[in-house]
Amino acid sequence: MNEHLKVLRSLTPCFYIKRGDQASIIGGVIEFIKELHQVLQALEAKKQRNSLSPSPAGTPSPRPVLQPPIQHDHTPFGFESVGEVGACCNSSVADVEARISGSNVILKIICRRIPGQILKIIAVLEKFSFEVLHLNISSMQDTVLYSFVVKIGLECQLSLEELTVEVQQSFFPEPLFLKEI
Predict the structure, then answer these.
(1) Tens-place pLDDT, residues 23-62
(2) What is the DSSP letter of 170?
(3) Cα separations in angstroms, 129 against 85, 92, 123, 132, 155
């Protein structure tokens, strides 16, 4: 058993495993597998979207989508998530998803690698009184997944839908009429 735990620990990034006991190692491995599964699903969805509808010339507009609460969502690993509420805002540039998890928001962004984009996203979060508690960055070739755990500030008046749209808009240059004001 100890040999298997050593192998699991060596295959899992260190920030998923908080302590060296068996429960922490197994819990960290489970979280890592969940994250990998989400990355795989997102990449497959993006690949399917790109193959079905190539993006036309010009700047695409983001489309917000409200996701209803998930009552019992069984994953292939047998885990269950209960009572989550979320919102998505997708475009050909980035997919943005926000979900409530307890008193925090889980924010996931999948996009191609853009220098300086993470700073723009953090600036949007801070502008609307969100505090970044944790950030995980996973990348594969030219695609990157930003996973945030953010605390909702007392002054925050944004809904999940508005948050996803604001983050999505950070990928697009400011319109000219806003620069003139």
Answers:
(1) 888 888 888 888 888 777 777 777 776 766 554 444 445 5
(2) T
(3) 20, 27, 10, 10, 6
